[in-house]
Write a structure and sequence with these properties.
Blueprint: H1 10-22, H2 27-77
Helix pairs in contact: 1-2
Length: about 80
């Protein structure tokens, strides 16, 4: 495992220590778990955004194809 040095405000450190103590975790374990959870949530949000963008792209393309078919059907009916 690698070592990382970070600077935290006194309040953030005090809050982290309090929560870690309540959870019966070391400060390092609590901060590591919290960071892992934050990264997991961020990656999930990025994935949802990419899927949403892909879905919108497919939807736009489908609308174009539907419009082309509608035009074709109109022309065929003349």
């Amino acid at each position: 495992m690698s070592v990382l040095t970070i600077r935290l405000s006194e309040k953030l450190l005090k809050d982290a220590d309090r929560i870690a103590k309540n959870k019966k975790l070391s400060r390092s374990s609590f901060i590591r778990e919290t960071l892992e959870e934050s990264i997991r949530k961020t990656l999930e949000a990025e994935k949802r955004k990419r899927l949403r963008e892909a879905s919108l792209k497919v939807r736009r393309e489908s609308m174009k194809v539907n419009a082309e078919f509608a035009k074709f059907e109109e022309d065929a009916g003349d």
